[in-house]
């Protein structure tokens, strides 16, 4: 048998009851999408935490790297006029 | 009608208690972490179903036995589960195939029981049916992947099917207990479930490239307390703590 760690890795996103956006719940190994969905249900939504689940192959995600921290995220911090603090920002359909 | 009803509920409860215990033996031994979690989740579901059926059995029996008394203080000959449920787990393929054969049967049976004229039984069946549908999806998907998988996985699944198939003859076993309850519309004629069960099972097994073996079914007996040599060992483990410390609380 091939080693279990040769199964591809999947990222799991769950949507809580009552609306709101899908949020990253964690990751898991599975041989294919259908079983990734089932494993996600058992691992991350056992007690009714979710009404919808997305699974995405981890390899499909392009992530920023630690070296990007400066150029990507710092420029905004010293320019208060970039932060629209006077507006209420709706989040997730405003169900909260 | 009370005694046939108690007997019938013991059959339903014991199937799930014993099979759930077998699944729980995989805890910490699953082939991969995710599957370990899934298998033991299903074990807990089955235990939950067993509690509901055995509790009602105890209430209707009226001798003051609750679900714990029924689970821990009956001996082997008083258990009414299918022999299929008590067979040792074998490898993951064997466990999964046994689960699939049982889940497919359970879905058909619970669907029928959810329409029972007995309101409490109907409510319990409807509740258990939801989770059982998920169990069937899980075991069915695995049977297809392992059967239609590598040479090794296919070989193991075919060996498991050759061993398990003769035990499925007991699924539709019925006797005077069933007849008494069928008259009042409490339970279905199990013979009528056999065909749709087999259609469903054959469909998945065909997609899994597995062939159903020829040959006669095994001798039955679980429904009237005749079991394989494996049940005694299982019960020893299941009952030892409760019997060593009667009435203990934790």
The largest pleated sheet of chain B is described as: none
What number of domains of chain B? 1
How are the strands ordered across the major sheet of chain A?
2-1-3
Secondary structure: number of strands of chain A: 3
Beta strand count of chain B = 0
| Whole-angstrom Rg of chain A | 18 Å
Structure description:
- The complex is a heterodimer of chains A (96) and B (250).
- Chain A is of the alpha+beta class.
- Chain A has a single domain (4-94), classed as Phenylacetic acid degradation B (Ubiquitin-like (UB roll)).
- Chain A has helices at 33-44, 69-73; strands at 9-15, 23-29, 52-57.
- Chain A is flat.
- Chain B is mainly alpha-helical and 250 residues long.
- Chain B has a single domain (2-244), classed as Ferritin.
- Chain B contains 10 helices and no strands.
- The termini of chain B are far apart.
- Classes of the chains: A alpha+beta (96), B mainly alpha (250).
In short:
The complex is a heterodimer of chains A (96) and B (250). Chain A contains two helices and three strands; from the N terminus they run ββαβα.
Itemize the secondary structure elements and their pairings.
The complex is a heterodimer of chains A (96) and B (250).
Chain A: E1 9-15, E2 23-29, H1 33-44, E3 52-57, H2 69-73
Chain B: H1 2-24, H2 33-61, H3 67-72, H4 83-86, H5 92-113, H6 119-147, H7 151-164, H8 176-183, H9 191-207, H10 230-244
